[in-house]
Amino acid sequence: MSLRLPRRLRVGTVTAGLAALALALTACGSGDAGTGGAPAADVGTVRVVASTNVYGSIVRAVGGNRVTVTSIIDDPSADPHSHEATPAEAASVTQAQLVVLNGGGYDDFMSKIVNSAGGHRPVIDAVEVSGLEPALEPGHDHADGHDHGEFNEHVWYSLPTMQTVASRIAGELARLDPASAAEFTANAERFNTQVGELLERATAIGTSHPGARVAVTEPVPGWLLHDAGLTDATPEEFAHAVETDTDPPAAVLQQTLALFTGDPVRALLLNAQTQTPTTDQVKQAAVRAGVPVVEVTETLPEGTTDYLSWMGGQIDALSRAVDRS
């Protein structure tokens, strides 16, 4: 597990590099799609660029061998919040016929590349199509009196949203390749059926343990907890501090550590792609208390190429953790 560099130190590099990317677009726009780590496009396939391998895997599930997919973020140690796009990545977007991104400020580098690239290629923004409201984590414990109106942009953990995204991908691919429309529709329906089965497994956790309290190091899995009917008992100020690479106030840290004493939470969901002294301290408190630690990630782990198996594994791990506590 690698240590993530502070976002507040890296975000500025995206803006600084944008002008250079804009200048490079014309020079790189006619280059081979296989350069810069992007796969060479097969003849007759639709060229799709996704901001992360999560969305890239969904495009593959829907498009099959009728698409050539480039995922800009496919390194588990990379942080989409502060990714500095390269000219080769910008060129891949310029050459793309379809772009799929998360939106909501999560992968802002992608929106900037799309805007700089110009053109009229369709863009699927998962946050925009989600229909989710900015009432972050409805299962959160509101007894703390905090305002929960901030939107949780990690919508790939919202299973219904991923069904919508898959359907939108099928629709756009069908417009780009009408001869394969029936195949895209069938693939999306199959994917959505399997996601529906994942949703049933998630909701079963809450059915067996209604309102069960859990803790998180970051709000990354918030929508999954919502769908599962679990209660996020973490002080919002703590999760926000970790997500923004700041230190939580001492009193907030103590409130978080107290979740593992007395009547402890049933599980700790730990973002395995972020490691800080603060998250280590919380993890150690959970381990000492015998509270199961469930690792979640923001992108597909190394060696994993399938959204369904990845998300299913995390749901099963959460179910085991809640059941055994």
From TrEMBL:
Subcellular location(s) of the protein: Cell envelope
Keyword entries, A-Z: Metal-binding, Signal, Transport
Database matches in PROSITE patterns: PROKAR_LIPOPROTEIN
Signal peptide positions (record): 1-33
One Pfam family matching this protein: ZnuA
PANTHER family (UniProt xref): HIGH-AFFINITY ZINC UPTAKE SYSTEM PROTEIN ZNUA-RELATED, METAL-BINDING PROTEIN HI_0362-RELATED
Protein name: Metal ABC transporter solute-binding protein, Zn/Mn family
Organism: Pseudonocardia hispaniensis
Organism phylogeny: Bacteria, Bacillati, Actinomycetota, Actinomycetes, Pseudonocardiales
